[in-house]
Write a structure and sequence with these properties.
Helix content is about 25%, strand content about 20%. It has about 300 residues and is an alpha/beta fold. It has a seven-stranded mixed beta sheet, with helices on both faces. Strands 8-9-10 form a three-stranded mixed beta sheet, with no helix packed on it.
């Protein structure tokens, strides 16, 4: 019997990293929305992955019932309000974007929805109540789901899954992780800004995190969007460079997120931001695979 191929809409899609995994799992994405023009432009550079409608829109101004109806809707809204790293001034109050996700779920009533964010979101009781107590849904929360199950990157996430019918969503299992060394480029195109050397010399509050790809168990720290502005925080050991270390290249950073090499990024530092803001491809493939089981 031919399997049913569910449809989905993506909100806060960014550059579509999560969407790649969803599509690889066999789900048909019909629409992706993000307010970031650079992110949606990057998706449009990759029509070999995204042949669906890509919109540059603000969810706050997007009405629900004017959108195409789909089996699944999912939200990977920005994590800066929930991340301990981002809350350096201890003034965060949460973010209203989750309310707009809640609004879309409540009005559309899809057969399934997903929410994704950093584990810090669990501390926000109002957010978690809205996303996990919605009448008419069976909710399963996974935390942490770590990209390190598949990739040499420590990236923990909370995944919330809502279904109209009871269903046992299987947690991701430990897989044979890709080795960091296999992700390294032979001749990387990287520039070492002066501030990287300054950080190495101890002129910053903290020293860089340095990972050695020759260590079979090496795991890179979380890919962060801020890498676009400061590539001195995370370095890779490389004896071909004067100081024995260098920043990750754009392609290496993308590989840490599970992005295939034929995915195109702009050749600017903004690419690091798009990659760091993304959700690893493998996490999308896992939850997409569970959705296929649910609908079949």
């Amino acid at each position: 019997m031919k399997k049913y191929k569910p449809t989905a809409k993506s909100y806060f899609s960014g550059a579509g990293l999560f969407d790649i995994g969803i599509k690889q799992a066999g789900i048909k994405i019909v629409q992706s929305i993000d307010i970031d023009k650079k992110a949606t432009a990057c998706m449009k550079m990759n029509r070999h992955y995204f042949n669906h409608q890509i919109l540059t829109k603000d969810i706050k101004e997007t009405t629900v019932l004017d959108q195409p109806n789909t089996d699944i809707i999912y939200f990977t809204y920005p994590c800066d309000r929930y991340s301990d790293i981002a809350d350096i001034h201890k003034v965060r109050t949460g973010d209203e974007l989750f309310l707009h996700a809640f609004r879309h779920i409540a009005l559309e009533q899809p057969a399934m929805f997903w929410g994704e964010n950093v584990p810090g979101m669990l501390k926000f009781k109002v957010v978690m109540e809205a996303m996990t107590k919605l009448p008419g849904y069976y909710i399963t929360t996974f935390c942490p789901v770590n990209a390190s199950l598949w990739l040499p990157q420590d990236r923990k996430r909370v995944i919330i899954v809502g279904t109209k019918k009871p269903f046992n969503i299987t947690a991701p299992e430990s897989k044979r992780r890709v080795r960091l060394k296999s992700l390294m480029e032979k001749n990387p195109d990287v520039h070492i800004p002066n501030y990287v050397i300054s950080r190495l010399n101890g002129n910053y509050r903290d020293l860089p995190i340095i990972v050695n790809p020759n260590d079979v168990n090496a795991i890179a720290p979380t890919c962060v969007a801020h890498y676009a502005k400061d590539r001195g925080t995370r370095l890779v050991a490389d004896e071909n460079y004067k100081h024995g270390v260098r920043p990750f290249s754009i392609r290496e950073y993308a590989r840490l997120q599970g992005v295939p090499d034929d995915y195109k990024f702009p050749s600017t530092s903004n690419a690091y931001c798009l990659i760091g803001n993304g959700v690893p491809v493998h996490i999308g493939r896992w939850i997409g695979g569970e959705a296929i089981k649910y609908f079949n």
